[in-house]
Amino acid sequence: MKLTTKILALTTILTLATVLIGCKKDIEVKPQQKLSTVERGDMTQTVVATGSIKPLHQIEIRSKTGGTVRKFFVEEGDWVTAGQRLFEISPEASPAEQVRAREELRTSEVEVRQAEDDLRIAKELADKNLLPAQNLRDAEREVERVKARLSAAQAEWALIQREQIGDRRGDMEIVQTSTTVVAPITGLIFTRELDEGASVTPTTSATGGTVVITMGDHTKLEFRGDVDEADVGKLKAGLTTNVTVQAFQGKTFSGEIYHISPVGRYSEKEQQIVFNVKATVDNSEGNLKVGMSATSRIVVDEHKDVPILDEMALFYKGDSAFVKVVTDTVAGTTEDRPITLGISDGIRTEVASGLNGGEIVSAGTVQPEK
Q1: Are 56 and 282 in contact (CB under 8 A)?
Q2: What distance in Å separates the CA atoms of residue 61 and residue 208, rounded to the nearest whole number?
Q3: How many domains does the chain have?
Q4: Which of 72, 216, 260, 355 could pair with 351 as two cysteines, CB 3.0-4.6 Å apart?
Q5: Burial 331-341 (b: 16+ CB within 10 A, else e)
Q6: Strand bridging mode 58-62 / 211-216
C-alpha cells in the first residue's frame, strides 16, 4: 500500500512538472507587443537627387580650323586669363577634303580642254562667217572662266600636297600657316581632351568640331543631379537643399534649387524616368571640387512641433489610416483609432489629426528569445 502511494505521488509530480514546463514554453514563445510613443517634434520632408558637382559656367574650346595639334601651351589645372594662348593648330586637310580637292582639279582640267575645243571650233566658224561674233566672244569668256577655276583648284591642291609632305623650309613659314587658339574667358583648365599630334575636325555649320579643351570658373560651383518622376511634382525653384559628398563625411553644403528640367529622360541606371535639377552650392571654404559625386536632399516641406509617429505603427482599412492605441499597458489592450497623416520622411510620419502626442501605440509584435 505504501509503495503504491509513493508511485502515485511520483507520477503526479512528473505530470505537474510536464505541465509547468509546457506552460513555460508557451509563455516564452508568445509574441509580445512592440510599443511606441507618439512624440512631438519637427518633421521635414525631403526629396533625394543624385548627381555631381559641376562648374556654374563651363565652356568647350574648339578650333574653326581643321588640322593637327602642333603644340599645347597649357595643362589641366592651369589658371589662364582671357586672351592667353591655349594651343596651336597646323592646318591639314581631312581625307574628304583631299578627295574633293583632287576631283575639283580633275573636273577643272576637263572643262578647260572642252572650252578650248569649243573656242577653236567657234573661231573656224567665225572665219567662214558661219557664227555670230557674240557667240565667239562667249566662247572666249568661257575659256577665261574655266582657266580661273583651274588655277584655284591647282593652288588648293598644291597647298594640300605641301601640308601632307610637310614643307618645313623654315620655322617662320610654319608659324605663318598655323592657327593659335586663345582663351575666350578667364578661368581654370578642367580637361585637355587631346595630346599633341592629334587630329582636329573644324567647327562648321554642319558639325560641332572636336572639343580640345574644357575650362570655366571653378570658384562658382553647382549641383546637377536627377530626381525620380514620382518626386518631381514636389519641387519648385527656390527650395533649399543640403548637399553631401563622399570626401567630407558628415559635412553638408547648403544650396538652393534654381532649375528643374521640364523634360524627363529614361535612365538606364535607374530603369525609370528622371528629371534633371540644378542648385547653387555654397563653396566659400573651397572644399568642393569639380566632378565630385554628390547627393542632394531637397527640403520640400517642414512642419514645427507636430505629433510624430513611427510608420511601423500604421495599418489601413481601405484608404483610411489607423493605429492601435494602448488603453491598458498591463493587460495589453488596445483600441483602433483613425488618424489623418501629414508629411513623412519615409521612416516617421506626421499625424495631422487623431493623436496629440504622448499616446502609446502598438508598433507590431516581437518574438521573445526562447
Answers
A1: no
A2: 11
A3: 4
A4: 355
A5: eeebeeeebee
A6: antiparallel
Q: What is the pLDDT along the chain (370 residues), one digit of tens a residue?
A: 454 555 445 455 545 555 445 544 444 455 677 888 899 999 888 899 999 999 888 889 988 877 788 899 999 989 999 999 999 988 766 566 677 878 888 998 999 999 899 889 988 888 888 888 888 888 889 989 888 888 888 887 776 666 555 544 444 444 345 788 999 988 889 999 988 888 888 777 667 788 999 998 877 889 999 999 989 998 999 999 999 999 998 899 999 999 999 999 998 887 899 999 999 998 888 889 888 999 999 988 888 999 999 888 899 998 899 999 988 877 778 899 999 999 888 788 999 998 888 888 888 776 555 5
- Dihedral sign (CA 191, 193, 195, 196): negative
Q: Are residues 143 and 183 in the same domain?
A: no
Range(s) of the domain holding residue 359: 32-43+303-366
Q: Report the candidate in 320, 312, 306 with the shortest Cα–Cα distance to residue 356.
A: 306
Q: Tell me whether residue 205 is exposed, middle or buried, using C-beta atoms within 10 angstroms of its C-beta: 0 to 12, 13 to 18, 19 or more.
A: exposed
85 plus 185 within the same structural domain: yes
Q: What CATH number corresponds to the domain at position 341?
A: 2.40.420.20
Q: What is the DSSP letter of 169?
A: S
Name the pTM for this structure: 0.56
3-class state of residue 87 by DSSP: strand
Start-to-end C-alpha separation, the chain: 43
Residues 6 or more apart in contact with residue 42 via CB below 8 angstroms: 302, 303, 304, 305, 306
Q: CATH number for the domain including 105?
A: 1.10.287
Taken as a whole, the chain contains a residue count of 370
Q: What are 329-333's contacts with CB under 8 Å, separation 24+?
A: 329/35, 329/360, 332/33
Contact by Cβ (8 Å): 351, 342: yes
